[in-house]
Amino acid sequence: MKPTITGLLLCIALSCFAQKQDTVTLSLKEVVVMAKERSIASRQAQTVKETKYWQYRTFRSNYQPQLSLQGILPGYTKSFIPVLQPNGTIDFHPVHNNNASLNLAFSQSIASTGGTVFGTTQLQRFDDFDRKTTLYNGTPYGLGYSQPLFKYNSLKWDQRIEPLKYDESKQEYIESMEEIAIDASAYFFDQLLAQVNLQIAETNYANTKNILRIANEKFEIGKISRNEVLQLQLEELKAQKAEGTARRDIEIANLNLKAFTGLQGDVKIELVIPDAITNIRIGQEKVLSEAYANRSDAIAFFRRELEANRDVAKAKADNGINATLTARLGFSKSATTFSKMYQAPKDQQMLQLEFDIPILDWGRSKSRTKTAEANRKFIEYAVEQDKQNFVQEIVTEVTLFDMMKNQLVLTRRADSIASEKYEIAKERYMLGNLSITDLSIAFQEKDQAKRDYVFALRDYWKAFYRLRYLSLYDFEKEQKITYK
Questions:
Q1: CA distance 200 to 239
Q2: CB contact at 8 A, 53 and 79
Q3: I want to staple 228 with a disulfide (CB 3.0 to 4.6 A). Which of 47, 135, 224, 393 is the partner?
Q4: The pLDDT value given to residue 424
Q5: 32-52 as b/e, with b when 16 or more CB fall inside 10 Å?
Q6: Cβ burial, residue 393 (10 Å; 0-12/13-18/19+)
C-alpha cells in the first residue's frame, strides 16, 4: 500500500523525534495509520492482494489468443538403428542425418461453446548425409476447430466464478487493513492502560509519602495512633511496589506496540487519551446495507452457491456421453527444395469424431451426480445460516456500540466524581476529620474509576473499528473505505 500524506508526515515527525528525544506522543488515529502503512501485517495483506491479482491475470490469459513456436534445431543423429527384415530378423543399419522442424501454432478458446480454433504452419527439413540428399516437408498453413460435445465447459463456468473471486479478494484486502486497525487499537489501549496505571502509581506514591510525613508529625504530638502510622507505611510500600510493577508493564506494552506498528529504534511512545466521537450516529440499516454492498462475505455467498451449481453440472457432464469433433483444413507438400514446397501445395483435410460412451458403470455416474446435488443442498443451507450469522453479528455490534457510548458517559462522570471525592477525603484526613479506612476507600475508588474509564474507552473504540470492519464504511467521512 502506498503511504498517504498523513503517513509521510507521521514518518518525518517520528524521524525528527527519534533524533532529538526519546519519547514521541501519538494519538489513536496516528497509531492506526502507522500500523496500516508500516506493520508486517499490512505488508502481508499487500502481498496476498498482489498474489490474487496475478492469479486473476492468469485466468484472463486463458481467453486470449495463444501463439507458440516449437522446433527441433538441430535434429542431428549419427548412430545405428535396428531395422526389421522381410524374413523377420533384425539388422542394424547406420544412419547419419539431420531431421529439423519448426512449428508456429496459434489457438483461441471460445468460452461460450468450450471449443478451440487453432492454426498452424509447419516446416521440416531432412538431410541424409550418407546419400547427400535433402528433403523438405511442411504445411504452409492449416486451420481447424475442435468442439467438445456433451462435455463440461470449464471456460464458461470460470468466466462466471473467477471474477467473483477477484472482487472478493479486493474486499478481503480492505478487511485485512481494517483488522489491522482493530489490532492496533488493542495494542494502543494495552499501553494506554499501562500508562494510566503508571501515572496512578506515581501519583499515589507521592501522595502516600506526603500523607505519611504529615501523619508522622501528628503521631509525634499524639493526635493519631501508632496503628495509623503503620497502616500508612504499609500503603507506602504497596504504592512503591505498584509503581515498579507499572513501570515493567508499560515497558512490555511499549515494546509490543512498537513491534506491531513497525516503529524502530529506542523511541518510547507516549499516548494521548482519545475522546469519543460524540456526534456520530450509526444506524443498523445503514450498516447492513453497506455490509451487503462491500463485504467479501456478501460476494462469497453468491460465489459458493455458483460453485455448487458448477460441481453438479460437471458431475452430470462427466458421467454421460463424451465426444469431441475436430475439423481441419489446410495445405501440405513435400519437395527437394524450400521454394518448391510452397508451389502448388496439396489440399489437407481432416474430420474426426472421438467419443466415449459408458455402457456399464454399476451406478457410479448416478452416485457422482447425487453426491454433487446433495453437496449443493448442504452449501445452500450453510450459506443461509452464514447469512443469518452475518446479519446477527452486525445487529449485535451496533447494539453494543450504542451501549458503549452510554457506558462511556457514565464512567467519565464516575471518574470525575471519584477524583473529586478523593481530594476531599485527602484534605479531611490531613485536617483530622477522616479515618485512614475511609481515606483508603476513597483512594481505591479513585484508581478504579480511572481504570474503568480507560476500559470503557477501549470497548468503545473497539466497537467502532469493528463496525468499520463489518461494513467497510467510514462513518466519520460518510463514504466507503478504499485503499490503493
A1: 9
A2: no
A3: 224
A4: 86
A5: bbbbbbbbebbeebbeebeeb
A6: middle
Query: What predicted TM-score, i.e. pTM, was given to this entire model?
Result: 0.82
Cβ(185)–Cβ(28) below 8 Å: yes
Cα dihedral 226/229/235/236 (nearest 10): -140
251 belongs to a structural domain: yes
Tell me if residue 337 falls in helix, strand or coil: coil
- Whether residues 136 and 40 share a domain: the answer is no
425: domain CATH number is: 1.20.1600.10
| Set of cell numbers at residue 208 | 502516600
Amino acid making up residue 60: R
The span from the CA of 306 to the CA of 313, in Å, is 11
* DSSP one-letter code for 348: E
Rg (CA), the chain: 39
Residue with cell 458448477: 310
Report how far residue 260's alpha carbon sits from residue 49's, in angstroms, rounded to the nearest whole number: 20
Residue pair 462/182 in contact (Cβ under 8 Å)? The answer is: yes
379 and 270 in a common domain: yes
pLDDT over 80 (residue 453): yes
The domain tally of the chain equals 2
Q: Are residues 178 and 43 in the same domain?
A: yes
Mean pLDDT (whole number) for 473-481: 91
Cα separation, 411 vs 186, in Å, equals: 19
The residue-averaged pLDDT of 377-390 equals 96
Provide the CB-side half-sphere exposure for 37 (13 A, CA): 17
Digit-coded pLDDT (tens) for 389-413: 999 999 999 999 989 988 888 988 9
Q: Please indicate, yes or no, whether residues 217 and 140 belong to a single structural domain of this protein.
A: no
The boundaries of the domain holding residue 80 are: 67-110+115-152+321-357
Mean pLDDT (whole number) for 49-66: 94
- Is residue 181 within 8 Å of 36, Cβ to Cβ? yes
Q: How far apart are CA 307 and CA 259, in angstroms?
A: 41
Over the chain, what is the mean pLDDT? 87
DSSP state of 2: P
Secondary structure of residue 181 in the 3-state scheme? helix
pLDDT mean over 463-484: 92
Using an 8 Å Cβ cutoff, are 37 and 9 in contact? no
Cell of 450: 480511572
Q: State mean pLDDT over 106-120.
A: 93
- pLDDT digit string (tens) for 25-40? 999 999 999 999 999 9
**Crossing angle, helix 436-471 and helix 226-261, to 10 degrees?**
20
**314-344 burial code (b ≥16 CB/10 A, e <16):** bbbbebbebebebebebbbbebeeeeebeee
Asked if 155 contacts 114 with a C-beta cutoff of 8 angstroms, the reply is yes
pLDDT score of 246 more than 90: no
